[in-house]
Amino acid sequence: MASGMEIDEEHETKGSMWVLDQKLDQPMDEEAGRLRNMYREKKFSSILLLRLAFQSLGVVYGDLGTSPLYVFYNTFPKKIDDPEDVIGALSLIIYSLTLIPLLKYVFIVCRANDNGQGGTFALYSLLCRHAKVKTIPNQHRTDEELTTYSRSTFNENSFAEKTKKWLEAQDLRKNALLLLVLAGTCMVIGDGILTPAISVLSASGGIKVNNPKMENGMVVLVAVVILVGLFSMQHYGTDKVGWLFAPIVLLWFLLIGGIGIFNIWKYDSSVLRAFSPVHIYRYFRRQKRDGWSSLGGIMLSITESIYWPTFIIATLAAVVASQATISASFSLIKQAVALGCFPRVKVVHTSKNFLGQVYIPDMNWILMILCIAVTVGFKNQIQIGNAYGTAVVIVMLTTTLLMMLIMLLVWHCHWILALIFTILSLVVEGTYFSAVLLKVDQGGWVPLVIAGAFLGIMVVWHYGTVKRYEFEMHSKVSMAWVLGLGPSLGLVRVPGIGLVYTELASGVPRIFSHFITNLPAIHSAVVFVCVKYLPVYTVPEDERFLVKRIGPKSFHMFRCVARYGYKDLHRKDDDFEKKLFDNLFLFVRLESMMEGCSDSDEYSLYGQQTQQSRDFLLKDNLNTSTSVADLTISSVDSIVPVKSPLNATPTVSSGPESSQTEVDELEFLNSCREAGVVHILGNTIVRARRDSRFYKKIAIDYVYAFLRKICRENSAIFNVPHESLLNVGQIFYV
Predict the structure, then answer these.
(1) 295 close to 92: Cβ distance less than 8 angstroms
(2) How far apart are CA 444 and CA 383, in angstroms?
(3) What is the value of pTM for the model shown?
(4) Parallel/antiparallel/unpaired status of strands 492-502 and 521-533
(5) H, E, C per residue of 351-369
(6) How far is residue 368 from each of residues 189, 425, 431, measured CA to CA in Å?
(7) pLDDT tens figures, 613-664
(8) How far apart are CA 666 and CA 661, in angstroms?
(9) Closest Cα partner for 463 from 236, 169, 705?
(10) How far is CA 153 from the centre of its chain?
């Protein structure tokens, strides 16, 4: 993978042809700068915060709160020889909850959020903004002008700067970081499969308390029915499900808390001795190796006359606990799709108010099938518990390693503090990890297999995506070739607008030359549309579109870059196309205003560039015999901000010629739009070379090709009607 530095050096050696491309197809720095500060963060009211806090009971704390259903069962799978062992195990649970969820996550990890968004991909996005570690080099300095693109600078001699340069120096290190993120993500997805299995199966097992002779198969059947109902409810969305589940979890907490207080008061208050860490030492001294291996069961805590009410509430609480990990899986997969690490799948936005609440139908049913397979296959929560403990501890280790980089690059902590945090976390989590390793053959292999399968899919998809982007970058058409065709592009210009979709934010894609080489006509107006995702959680609507002109006006060629964050979604209507044309027409009007701009303070920064480019822009009848040298000298900076005239009050003295030019071009574009809009999509097929190694052929020719075949087409994502779609195919070999 070529780094940004290597690309810059390559450009510097291209001579006058590259200079020509830059003159005629300049970056969008000015327009991006003009869009700055148009967006303001929403301030949440106290009532809304209380509402979200109440919902979090069902979506977040349900997983942690239902641990009593299975933690002791997995800690003592055989029998309890000494009541003191229960005190020791409970002491371990108390201090495990204190050290990991409370001290590490609540006070430290939760602060490392991307504008409120959490998870491994959110941490990775933070790192991508503070260091050039993104493996797809499609970022541009204009992206840093976004209001949601928060980042900080380093002192050149600081340890953070040295760490940043070390990460950026080699592609191997960037790929290793991404692999770490993907591994953690896959383990969370595995957690989304195991949590419903162990929670629901443990709760269903409560039936045997009142009916000891009941066969285990009946318990499994009840669990499967509950799981099917749980996954069938997901399409209602986290918002509605959260409101439904939050009262259940609140009731569950009150129930187990009340029962615990009553039992301590009436039967045995000596259980309070568990708050003393001395009992942890005594527990290990008595149990020795068995005590050590029971740590795998203790890890599960992190994630009696009133039998039937307790059983019903416990079962409902188990369902709620499952919801937390299922929602997390949907969110992570959405982020992976946006960052080019997962095949395109249908994503449904289930809330109008909150970006993070999504539902992915395909993944929902896949998770359900895998969850049922685990439940039926193991039939008891002991082996599922071993698998669950493995997944949880690996996610924690991944978070620790990412947090070390966050503390250095984002928070600018002293390296000693970052080292202390990392060592302390690794000591605690490494201890648990060594315990779960002893149970790999007793069910702990399950999350490794599940995560390995998802990791393989993500790695292969990302590799193919990167290679496709590199192919587009290195094979793009020079502006000199396009200008040599003349205003008609050497073809018949038929009425209509052609939207050419490309992954390139600059330059003319190869599919365009492939198109005009094989077809005798092209539309009267052409817009190159680039839809790219940035390492930010959202791009405000006012800052989403960047529009500019390519070449002289007589060519009627434009570029539109639509920028999205990993939480943003495309709407399933004509909203995207409408906004694209609104911004295009606004660009034409403002471009005309800029040409007649006087001594306005708002446009003073662009006065010199506008003056230099005015003469060239007004030459609609460009002679195709104009020499390359003449074009190189001319300045064709036609970039202006796409900003609403209602928000801008420039002093503009537009002459009649400028106004007439604006009206004529707007009428021309409107007539083209009325004639019809055609969406031209490139269908690039990736193939492995004949001399490639066998594993590369399997990955590209079979796995990647299969994933491309079953994933959603771009036309479905952009809601392009089939009658307006034109696919342009091309093959390249890697």
Answers:
(1) yes
(2) 7
(3) 0.77
(4) parallel
(5) CCCCCCCEECHHHHHHHHH
(6) 12, 33, 32
(7) 333 333 333 332 222 222 222 223 333 333 333 333 333 344 555 556 667 8
(8) 9
(9) 705
(10) 24
